[in-house]
Amino acid sequence: MKNILDYLEKTAQDHPGRTAVDDGKTTMTWSGLTKLSRRLGTEFCKRTGRGKPVVVLAEKSSCTLAAMFGTVYAGCFYVNVDPAQPPARVKQILKSLGAGLVVTEREYNPILDEAEYQGERFFLENILGTNVPGSSGEPAGGNSGGFVGNVDGGIDNAALEAVREKSRDTDILYGIFTSGSTGVPKGVVVSHRAVIDFIKHFIDTFGFTAEERIGNQAPFDFDVSVKDIYTSVMTGAALVLIPKKMFSVPPVLLDYLCEKQTTVLIWAVSALTLVSSLKGLRYRRPEAVKKIFFSGEVMPARQLRLWQEALPEAEFVNLYGPSEITCNCTYYPVQRIFKDGEKIPVGRPFPGREVFLLDEADREVTETGKTGEICVAGESLADGYYNQPEETSKRFVYYSRGGVSKRYYRTGDLGYFDADGELCFSGRKDFQIKHMGHRIELEEIERAMDRVEGVERSCCVLDEKRSRLAAFYLGRADPEEIRKDMKKRVPVYMVPHKIIQVQAMPLNKNGKTDREHLRRRLEVRG
Q1: 440, 471 contact by CB (below 8 A)
Q2: What is the pLDDT of residues 321-354, one digit of tens each?
Q3: Which strands, in side-by-side order, build the sheet including 315-320?
C-alpha cells in the first residue's frame, strides 16, 4: 500500500464499529471517521489543486483529525497550525507555504484577519453544523461516527478516485513548522512512504495491536503526534485525545487516563515530568498503561524512577530523532533503574535507518566515548524544507559511506557511543535547543527581541540547570514591556523566563557574543 488512506480504509473495513478517535466530547468509529474524511475531501477538491498545502487552523479534536484526512483525500498535504500561535507567526507560515486554503472554525477568523490572509477559508461548521456531540447533547458513537445527519451524503466518489489514481508514495503527507535561524519558521515536509515505513517498524518493534488505547498528549502541529495518529490508523487502536488544559492539573489528567483506560503514552518528557514532579502519581496511578515512550528532551533519572515505581509492569522506552527524519531514528528500552546523574542512552537505530557520527572535518567517528555530530541516513528522511532549497541543502547532504553515496540529515545534535554501543545524546552543536519539548533556534528569539522598541541588542541562552530560557539585552526598554511585546511575536514557550538588562555584551576571542560567559553569569546570579 502506497498511500496512508489505504491503511485508513482497510482499518475501517476490518473494524468499522470500533472507536477510532475520542476527544472527550466527540467519539468517532473507524467507519464514521472515514466517511466524514471523504466528505471533507470532496469539499476540499472543489477549492484547491492536487499537491497543494492546506492549513488546518484548529485545536486538536476528532473533527480536526477528519479535516487532516480530508486534505489527504483531496490529494493535498496538511499543515496544522495552533490557534494559540501569534498572528505574526501564523502570517509567516501562510506566506512560506503560499497557502490558498485554510480549514478552520469561525472563532479563529480574527487570527486570519490579523495575519492578512487573502486566500479561501473553509469553516468546519459549514459541514458539521451543530450536530457535534458534546456541544448540543447528542450521544457520541455509532456507525455515523458520532455525528447526527447524513454523513454519506455529499461524497463525490468519482472525484476522490480520480485524485487517488494519480497518487504516489512520494507525495507529501504533512508539513510541520520548526523554528528557523533566519527568523522565518521552516516547514519540514514528509511523504506518505516515509511515514508508512517508519510506523511499520514502530509497530513491529513494540508489538502494537488493535486492542491498544493510545493517549495522545502532543498537539497536532508537533511531530510526536504522528506516532499516535498513524500507529492508530495502521493497527485499528483507539486514539484518545487528551485536552491540553488537563496537563496543568495532574489529578484531572490522571482521572481522565483511568476513565479512558489508556494503555499507551507517547509523550514529551516535559509532560511526563510535570505529572511526576507535582506528585500526581501519589494521587492515582493509571494502572492500565503498559507502554510509555518519551522524547524531546533529556529525561531526568529521578522523574523516570517515579514513573517506574508507580507502574512497575510498564515498558519504558527513550526515543530520539528530529522532525526531519520522520519522528525517531533510535530507541532505548529502559530495563533498569538509573541513578541521579546517570545518562539514559537514546539507543540503537530502528530498522531501515543508519545513524553515525561525524567530526568537524566530516570524518566518521567510531571510537567509544568520542563525540561527533549525529547524522541519519536510510528510510524516512523528510523531503526537506518547503520552498526553502538553500536551508534544505545545508542539512540534507550526500556522503560517501561504505563506497556508496547516500543522502543523510545533519541533526546538529552531538552524541557518542558508550561501551555497550548505545548512542548517547550530549547536547547541541549550534544554538538550536530543545525546550519544553519544542525545537527552538535561539536566533529566532533574538530577532524577535531585537525588534522590540528600546532594545539595541540581545542574546538568548538556555539556563540548563533550571531548564529555562534567559535573555540579556542592551537598551532602555523595560523587561516587562519586552515580555509583553514578545508574546505578540513568538509562541509562549519561546518567551524567556528571565530578561536581564546589561551595560555591555561580553565577547569571546573571535569577537562573537560570549554565550558561555552569560550562562556562567546565570549560575552565579541564581
Answers
A1: no
A2: 999 999 999 999 999 999 877 889 999 999 999 9
A3: 27-29, 19-22, 238-241, 213-216, 264-268, 291-295, 315-320, 330-334, 348-349
C-beta atoms surrounding 8 within 10 Å: 23
Cα 1 from Cα 6, distance rounded (Å): 6
Which secondary-structure segment (H or E) carries 34? helix 30-45
Q: What's the pTM value of the predicted model, to 2 decimals?
A: 0.84
Strand order in the sheet with 53-57: 120-123, 101-104, 53-57, 77-81, 172-178, 186-191, 384-385
SS3 at position 28:
strand
> Strand runs (DSSP E) across 429-467, as ranges?
432-435, 438-441, 455-463
What is residue 138's predicted lDDT score, i.e. its pLDDT?
Answer: 32
User: Are 29 and 22 a contacting pair, CB within 8 Å?
Assistant: no
d(CA 9, CA 34): 7
pLDDT at site 403: 81
**Mapping DSSP to helix (H, G, I), strand (E, B) and coil, where does residue 435 land?**
strand
Residue 93, number of CB atoms within 10 A of its CB: 22
**What is the dihedral angle through the alpha carbons of 107, 65, 224, 336, rounded to the nearest 10 degrees?**
120
Residues contacting 325, CB < 8 A, separation 6+: 353, 376, 380, 381, 382, 409, 411
The answer to whether the CB of 81 falls within 8 A of the CB of 221 is: yes
Q: Left, alpha or beta for 321 (phi > 0: left; psi -120 to 50: alpha)?
A: left
Distance from chain centroid for Cα 263: 21
Distance in angstroms (rounded) separating the CA atoms of residues 217 and 214: 9
CB 44, CB 52: distance < 8 Å: no
Q: Which residues of the chain have pLDDT under 50?
A: 130-150, 509-511
Task: Could you list the beta-strand ranges (E) of 63-119.
Answer: 77-81, 101-104
**Burial annotation 177-204 (CB, 10 A radius, 16+ → b, else e):** bbbbbebbbbbbbbbbbbbbbbbbbbbe
